[in-house]
Amino acid sequence: MLRHFIRALQPLIPGRVRAVGNDSAFERNSIRKEEQLTQVLKRSLPGITYISVQDISGGCGAMFEISIEAKEFVGLSRVKQHRLVTDSLKSEIAEMHGIRIHTTPPQSNVE
Fold this sequence. Notes:
The protein is an alpha+beta fold. The chain has four helices and three strands.
């Protein structure tokens, strides 16, 4: 019965809607999320000299890879560096499936 009803409505439906593509909602959402994460980190760690935030979940915004070089990491162990990042992103991480963090202090140009 429902099948006949849907078939009767098909001439009224202008076209099929695609959920994926070059400018999909998933891509727009992940770009906004990448920008949001970047801004939160820049506010909490003002000594950032390099930052890269990438959605590695295929566009759904569930998993991110973050690479940061910041002056705040000088003299800290890797665990403490990562703790600074995760503390900064506490509420954002709660919405994620996973996160990869790569941290490094700035390289000194000693010659």
